[in-house]
Amino acid sequence: MVPAIDISAVSRRFGQLLALDNVSFRVEPGEFFALLGPNGAGKTTLISAMAGLTRPDSGTIRIMGHDVVSDYKAARQSLGVVPQELVFDPFLTVRETLRFQSGYFGLTRNDAWLDELLFKLGLSDKADVNMRALSGGMKRRVMVAQALVHRPPVIVLDEPTAGVDVELRQSLWSFVQELNHAGHTIVLTTHYLEEAEALCNRIAMLKKGRLVALETKDKLLARSNERDVALKLSSDLPASLEALRLRQEDGRHILRLPELGALEGVLATLRQASVEVRELSMIEVDLEDVFVHMMQGGAN
């Protein structure tokens, strides 16, 4: 099966800045894939290269088998990108904006599909409203609709819920999941790591332009040896364990252990100090824990 996205040895430099350093990975058709990294990691540069907005200095990118340089028309027809920035013409209505976007792909008389997009994204009552009169969250929805006017099989969402309230965020994800279930490939970048953990099957992490992780979500979560444990004690935590304490909340001491086996030593120290353990619970590792660990050097 042809990969939905095939990125091979891609590098891109801007002056002295190496924005992408030999990045390679594939995204399979129908995947819900997360591309994560801190600001400046190279995510937007990579998305721009996928969309043909910048050219790699070396390497290749193919969308549904189409090279974004040599077969750019077919590649762009196969890709819809929801940009991070809110870019719009302040003199057009929502419907006019979508018709204008359709024209870039040679599409006319597609009002039935545009009406469906407006309905699915909760924009039907805003169809004839001027873009500049919309809230930030509504403008974000229009950006999503613009990316879908040509029904692309691959959709890239670059920080789609930035500045969006909870209600709008939930309805947006419901629609995106519906698209994914219908067979669309979704690539998501987000700083809301709980979204990536809840939605995505596989995750790539970029750091300073380099790919430092490419795993299924479960394998990535299992990567970290560190474990957090919550202890409710009969008295204060012994001074010798203070270095392990992350915080104290609701009368519990939250300790971070370098590995699960370290728990035995902690309990031994508490026994020696005559401190009784009244409650003990393990705290599950989440994607944010793994992300912070990787970005602080865990992948080096």
Keywords:
300 residues; alpha/beta; Rossmann fold; Alpha-Beta Plaits; 6-stranded mixed beta sheet; 4-stranded antiparallel beta sheet; 14 strands; elongated
Structure in a nutshell:
Helices cover 34% and strands 29% of the residues. With 300 residues, it is of the alpha/beta class. The mean pLDDT is 91.
What do these coordinates show?
With about 300 residues, this protein is of the alpha/beta class. The chain folds into 2 domains: about 5-220, P-loop containing nucleotide triphosphate hydrolases (Rossmann fold, 3-Layer(aba) Sandwich), CATH 3.40.50.300; about 225-285, Alpha-Beta Plaits. It contains 10 helices and 14 strands. It has helices spanning about 45-50, 70-75, 95-105, 110-120, 135-150, 165-180, 195-200, 215-225, 260-270, 285-300; strands at about 5-15, 15-25, 30-35, 60-65, 65, 80, 155-160, 185-190, 200-205, 210-215, 225-235, 245-250, 250-255, 275-285. Strands 6-7-8-3-9-10 form a 6-stranded mixed beta sheet, sandwiched between helices. Strand 9 (about 200-205) and strand 10 form a beta hairpin. The mean pLDDT is about 90.
List the helices and strands and how they pair.
Layout: E1 5-14, E2 17-27, E3 32-36, H1 43-50, E4 58-63, E5 66-67, H2 72-77, E6 79-82, H3 94-104, H4 111-120, H5 136-148, E7 154-158, H6 166-181, E8 185-189, H7 193-199, E9 202-207, E10 210-216, H8 217-223, E11 227-233, E12 245-249, E13 252-257, H9 262-272, E14 277-283, H10 287-298
Parallel strand pairs: 3-8, 3-9, 6-7, 7-8
Antiparallel strand pairs: 1-2, 1-4, 4-5, 9-10, 11-13, 11-14, 12-13
Helix pairs in contact: 3-5
GO molecular function: ATP binding; ATP hydrolysis activity
Domain ABC transporter: 5-233
Keywords: ATP-binding, Cell membrane, Membrane, Nucleotide-binding, Transport
